[in-house]
Amino acid sequence: MLDPIKKIFPSFSTELVKDVDANASIQSFKAGDIIMRTGQYIKNTVLVISGKIKVYREDENGGEFFMYYLQPGQACAISMICATKNEKSQIMAKVVEDVELIMVPLPLMDKWMMQHRSWYEFVIDTYRSRFEEVLEVIDSIAFRAMDERLEFYLKRHADVCGCKELKLSHQEIASELNTSREVISRLLKKMEQRGIVSLHRNNIELLK
Amino acid sequence: MLDPIKKIFPSFSTELVKDVDANASIQSFKAGDIIMRTGQYIKNTVLVISGKIKVYREDENGGEFFMYYLQPGQACAISMICATKNEKSQIMAKVVEDVELIMVPLPLMDKWMMQHRSWYEFVIDTYRSRFEEVLEVIDSIAFRAMDERLEFYLKRHADVCGCKELKLSHQEIASELNTSREVISRLLKKMEQRGIVSLHRNNIELLK
DNA sequence: GAAAAACAGTGACAATTGTTACATTACTTT
DNA sequence: AAAGTAATGTAACAATTGTCACTGTTTTTC
Predict the structure, then answer these.
(1) Which of A98, A140, B38, B61 has the largest CB neighbor count within 10 A?
(2) Rounded Cα distance, A8 and A166, in Å
(3) Is the pTM of this model over 0.85?
(4) B178 plus B135 within the same structural domain
(5) How many domains does chain A have?
(6) pLDDT at B82
(7) Are residues B149 and B133 part of one domain?
(8) For the residues of A101-153, what is the DSSP string, one character each?
(9) CB–CB of A41/A86 below 8 Å?
């Protein structure tokens, strides 16, 4: 187990890797599983070994709003923040591609901050990068209309999956941007006419 | 100087207070001063002794978007996050009421994390509460129409100033919600008709 | 105290987004 | 291959938000 941890979290010191290996448990989840719910207490800090997790916000009426993805080598900032105070989760986390996770029990997360410099830096860096990502999300909804938000959304997706072929239905996109399917279809058609995308069934190809 | 610090930051340990007193400088700013700009490098972590600071996001066209206020006993989470990596600020911070600030130099912020348990907890708690506040802001723009956002905004203001008389012009509100003055006037009139507010010049009275 | 500036109210209209309703196309299942 | 289902296209209309133009009022400035 030592080797893969070192590979996926290269910034971890050797002692930290040993500590992780000795104390943390590995759990697997299937695509579609929800591993964190709004209002649920958080008992572990979650590190991603493999797979992909979608982190989103949910409102009372079941509306979703996409925030970001968690990928191998990353950790859930919310689970770190809440861990120290035994707080409730403010977000939803759903498995998009089957994942393997390292679950670090709550008290260790705290203890390691003092013991392992590389853990401390990893945690702080996780906070920072998520905070910045969330600020960008705020920008996109505060300052931009739906057409620009859609472009922003598609580009983020392409960045994450590392390809230009997005396997998404219009309905999925609409849910994650909290609008309706018709609006997305309409805007995508316009984008196609401008030559920005090429539309196929369950597949949007980014041309630029 | 020791006494006021202890009073305003009651969670700080005696040793931490001494360290703050010995190493940090106090600076004053006047209402209207901008103490942090998008793109500017951050050299200090900022703790508020007195006064009020508005933290907001700015887009390329000068549009503003209000995020939260900083008040006595609070610290700027962004300045903490960026400090450890010597990153650029992603936000604007403007003085609303004359402030006195404790400026903690960048390297100390980091050092104290290991030395002072109470500093560590203060920093983590600052992250957590700001992150939560930002998530609520996302909710308000992602899930709600302008009328509800306006109500949310007015209530937050009332909470912060601790009174029901909000000294705000329609234009100010419009800027902070990134919409136009006419829209705010229109919605406020409707709220007045519903008996939620009472409107006067530069003064909105919350009735509920 | 007159002029200027800031603040607020309002009607008309444009643009964007949300909703309803139904048609069409492309895959899946049997 | 026929039927069923999911995905997409699209027109028409409603609701919300943005913009323009102009009015009147209060406060500030000179």
Answers:
(1) A140
(2) 25
(3) yes
(4) no
(5) 2
(6) 74
(7) no
(8) EEEEEHHHHHHHHHH-HHHHHHHHHHHHHHHHHHHHHHHHHHH--HHHHHHHH
(9) yes
Asked whether residue B106 carries a pLDDT value surpassing 90, the answer given is no
The pLDDT of residue A2 is above 90: no
A81 min Cα distance to partner chain B (Å): 6
Protein residues closer than 7 Å by CB to strand C: A 145-147, 178-180, 182-183, 187, 201; B 169-171, 181-182, 185-186, 188-189, 199, 201-203
- With contacts defined as CB-CB under 8 Å, which chain B residues touch A67? 138
A155 and A197 fall within a common domain: yes
B84–A121 CB contact, under 8 Å: yes
In a shared domain, residues B119 and B26: yes
- Closest residue by Cα to residue A197 from A143, A142, A147, A141: A147
Segments forming the whole domain that contains residue A180: 145-206
Can you tell me the distance from the alpha carbon of B74 to that of B67, in angstroms, rounded to the nearest whole number? 15
Whether residues A35 and A78 fall in one domain: yes
156-195 of chain B touching strand D, CB 7 A cut-off: 178-180, 182-183, 187
For residue A1, give the 3-state DSSP assignment: coil
Whether residue A49 is found in the same domain as residue A32 = yes
Which of B141, B164, B192 is the last residue before a domain boundary? Answer: B141
Q: How far is B208 from B205, CA to CA, in rounded Å?
A: 9
Mean pLDDT, residues A53-67 taken together: 92
Same domain, A104 and A173: no
CA distances A88 to A187, B68, B95, Å, are 37, 22, 33
CATH code of residue A178: 1.10.10.10
pLDDT in tens, A123-161: 989 998 999 899 999 999 999 999 999 999 999 999 988
Q: Which residue type occupies A74?
A: Q
Q: What is the CATH number of the domain that holds B74?
A: 2.60.120.10
Examine the domain organization and report whether B99 and B7 are in the same domain. yes
* Residues shown for chain B: 208
Using a pLDDT cut of 70, give the percent of chain B over it.
Answer: 97
Name the strand (E) or helix (H) holding B73: none
pLDDT by residue (tens digit) across B117-136?
999 999 989 998 999 999 99
